[in-house]
Amino acid sequence: MNLVYKYLFTVELLHHYYRDGKCPDFEIVPTEDCLQQLRDSHLIWRFINNKLFVGIEIDPADAKESTPALALADGIVLRFYLKLKNAAFLNFTNLPAGQNRNQCYYFSNISGNKQAKNLYLSSAVTAFDNAVSYSPGDLVQSGAQLFECISPAKGKATSNSSFWKNIGTDRVVTQNDLIAVTTSSLKANVIPPANAIISKVFKLNRETNFYDVPALDPVVSNFGEQQSAINVNLFSLKEGSQKLLSPGCYLISVNDVPADVYFDTPAVSSGVFGVIDIFHHANVPSDFNLLDNGAVKEINYKICFHNRSTIWKYILKNDSTLKVADKSAAISFSKEATGVVFHSDVPLALSQTAIDTLQIVDASNNVVLSPVKNAAVDYLKKITINKTEFFCSEIFLNY
Q1: pTM higher than 0.85 for the full model?
Q2: Residue range 193-220: mean pLDDT, rounded
């Protein structure tokens, strides 16, 4: 008898930096508990290039080849690690430049983050707010479009191209997707500091997809002096022994101040970049659910990263008659006070697709070199222009 498999789901990694849009900088691997669940559920998996494939065995008696051979357990969560392979990734990706072992990016299919037919596992990008002060690199959503701030902006509409750059409709990863990752003992802040502290831990409510179901009994602690932090233990005493919670996402409340955390000791010790939870229960957002009335949908999820924009700083040799210019006049450069140094007046996107209109010209605007090389991604620093801090890429030219 021949076994028939269909894709239960795929997870595709995308990045605006790359010419083909595909992100090759990671591998996606199942966690140890997920490997066992895959075996138990007659699932197979492969990660190829930029895409995770998870296949499910189909009932040979089903002529439509859409019914799983073994029913997928209600409430199952398939967990995967997103492991970074490229050390320069954060140089060219619009994300915070530093990530420690106590943080990771969290993605799941209860995000509900849909754009047209595209299903994104990242959370929604923050909506534009006219009253907020934005800094270069900040991303917002306005209508169906996403915009990147290119100059300090408050009260400046996203239609104002002096302050905002339209980056399209892809729902990209932002710092909204960062989550604290912890072992079974979490050091949580107490805000404001207090003597009496009530710690609560909540798990996912599969009816609502909110984290409001008590996972542990509340713990009341009293101290002689005010405490600014407290250890929250993710285990309970059961019949005289400690029982750990299952790895996954929880909401921790300390004196009613909530914070999302991801409990996974191996993720902390190995410093994974991100974790992916694929939930299967009746109230997963319908477009994101794995099955449709028990039938396999062959669903495709996406995780998309946006490329970083930096000030491009060209450093020439001591010939003061030369300057950097854009023959299309779309990009302007300013000369710095010392040396033969020019920087772009707005941040430019780091990309595999080169800007081929930049050139060096002399005092008479005769072309000396064209095109000029673009910024590399192996080095990143910061620069302050008019009291505003930008990421900066330095390019040294032998002219």
Answers
A1: yes
A2: 94
